[in-house]
Amino acid sequence: MPKEELKARLEAYLTLPNLIAWLKIKPEDEGYNYWVSEDCVLTQFVQAGGPEFANLLVGSKAVYDPEASEDGDAIIDLPKGWDRAAGTIIWTFGSMLKRVEDLYAENS
Questions:
Q1: What is the value of pTM for the model shown?
Q2: Separation of alpha carbons 100 and 51, rounded Å
Q3: Which terminus in the chain has less CB density within 10 A, N or C?
């Protein structure tokens, strides 16, 4: 898929309501490792968005396609505040849900 089309699909998917809905179906006490991209909550969320996102990884500020990116360019930057919500200790889906709901309230 061309990078611009992938970027457009990611822009449509990367919303706080989508992230909140996904977090609500995750086990509240299950943990994630923010420092390991493959296990990060945001990588898991992106990859859950559909087969076209299955190989994407999330860094601290952006979404990447490690298979297609020769120069390390990001496909799309993460929405504002998402890195802070994911990286704040305690790393469980339940605590992440609370932080994302707070972020949503701040931005509404």
A1: 0.93
A2: 24
A3: C
